[in-house]
């Protein structure tokens, strides 16, 4: 559904349900480049990509968290309006999260890493490459907080080119 406009999760669910005559248990969805997203409610969704969604705000992130609580993989790269405050509210809805891509999210800081570390205990892979508000010390602290994380992509964080693979 790349480059979609004004899609709501309810409308998408209706369309998918009408094709199969029964509600579809959607497990993976990619909505990259969408210009707007009103509502997204897929309780069984496991994978979601909202990368390059410039209109996604903290309020939208929280709505997605509430509507898609079963996510295991989430890509939000280049969502420049997301902040620590949004993550403080959203992360608690994603205890199953295992892979998270936040690369190029320019407003995020080490506070978001702390929030994710406290709420997303099953996380294995994190990408915070090119996040100017996150430094190498914060990445190392995060890895110490969650030793089960096997890979942290943090290229060009704090001026360093660092990828931690354990």
Automatic annotation (TrEMBL):
Domain F-box/LRR-repeat protein 15-like leucin rich repeat: 44-163
SMART domains: LRR_CC
Transmembrane segments: none
Residue runs in coiled coils: none
GO cellular component entries: SCF ubiquitin ligase complex
InterPro entries: FBXL15_LRR (IPR057207), Leu-rich_rpt_Cys-con_subtyp (IPR006553), LRR_dom_sf (IPR032675)
Gene3D superfamilies according to UniProt: Ribonuclease Inhibitor
Taxonomic superkingdom: Eukaryota
One GO term of the biological process aspect: SCF-dependent proteasomal ubiquitin-dependent protein catabolic process
Descriptive protein name: F-box and leucine-rich repeat protein 9
């Amino acid at each position: 559904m790349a480059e979609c406009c004004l899609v709501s999760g309810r409308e998408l669910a209706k369309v998918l349900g009408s094709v199969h005559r029964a509600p579809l248990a959607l497990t993976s969805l990619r909505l990259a480049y969408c210009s707007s997203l009103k509502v997204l409610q897929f309780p069984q969704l496991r994978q979601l990509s909202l990368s390059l969604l410039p209109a996604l705000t903290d309020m939208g992130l929280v709505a997605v968290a509430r509507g898609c609580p079963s996510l295991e993989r989430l890509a939000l790269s280049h969502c420049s309006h997301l902040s620590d405050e949004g993550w403080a509210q959203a992360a608690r809805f994603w205890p199953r999260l295992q892979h998270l891509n936040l690369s190029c999210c320019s407003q995020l800081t080490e506070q978001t890493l702390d929030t994710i570390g406290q709420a997303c205990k099953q996380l294995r892979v994190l990408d915070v490459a090119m996040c100017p508000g996150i430094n190498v010390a914060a990445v190392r602290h995060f890895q110490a907080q969650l030793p089960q994380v096997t890979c942290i992509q943090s290229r060009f964080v704090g001026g360093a080119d660092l990828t931690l693979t354990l």
